[in-house]
Structures are given as C-alpha cells and as structure tokens.
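Subgroup meeting minutes
Present: P.N., E.W., G.H.
Scribe: E.W.

1. P.N. recapped why we're keeping a running log of single-chain structure predictions: easier to compare across weeks, and new members can see raw inputs and outputs side by side.
2. G.H. added today's entry (171 aa).
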Amino acid sequence: MAIDDLTAVVPPPTASGFDQRAWQATEEWLGFSLPSDFKDFAQTYGTGTFCDGFLQVYCPSSSFELYREFVEYQAGVLQAHIDAGVRNIPFAPYPSCPGLLAWGADENGHRLHWLTAGAANEWPVIAESHEGDFERFDVPVTSFLAQALRNGIRPSHIWHQPFEESELNFA
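Output recorded in log:
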C-alpha cells in the first residue's frame, strides 16, 4: 500500500481528526469520489503540513467547509490567470472535467493538483510552479509524497533543494 510507504518516511500524528461525514459531504459537493489513497491519507494524517510547515496537504477529513474554500480559491486563481491571459495553463481548473483539482501547496506558492481525467484512482499528480510551469507524475498522492520526501522524485520547477531527514515531520 502506498500509505505504508509514506508512513515509513514520515510518522503520522496520533490522531488524524478524520470525519466520515465531512468526507461524504465533500464527495457529494464535488460530484465524484476522490482517490482511495487520498482517503487513506486523510484517515492516517488528516489536513496538515510536512517539513516544518513547508508543504501543506488539504483534506476534507475534518472540515468540509475549509476544504471547499481551499478548492474554490485555488480554482479561482487558475481561472483568473486564464482569463487574464498571463499564463499558458494546459488544463482548465475544477469543476471542469478533465480539470485541475488542488490538494496541496507549499510555502513558496507552488501548487499540487490532480488531473481529474478518467477513474479517480488513476488521476496523475500535476505539480505547478508559481511561475506557471506544470509537470505530470503518474503516481497516486501518497506515492508522490513518499517519493518526493525521500528525494526519489523531484518536480523540476518547484523543489530545488533536497528534503533533509531532520525536516521529515508532519503536524
């Protein structure tokens, strides 16, 4: 299981705050199910940050409203860039399908999305730099995080420094 790979790299918190009702409300609002490995992540970690606050992952695990606000804000930012013609964005934002659905961001303004094309468990991760570069990774979220935190994969436009073992934490 991909979640086991991630927990081997970064121990999870003692409680994730997972709320099944928030998860169900989110999937009803989205109009589709989220990837099963992301549910594993939400049940194991919940919303929080890796590497002393550097990398944030947003889950509908404890609050549907906060997750919805995050998704709507990120989609609005992408749409504003498209409308202004300031960036060449290769995919429309959610709610377009296929489209970009945000699930994370880092403190430098880089964003992490899924490309919602096909079955949810097959959605690739799309890393977006704050300069507007996009890079595709054909792995689930938990595999992406485990490999990235071990420096096994590195989005070329967003993370230029390796993650140090002393930084591998989640809060």
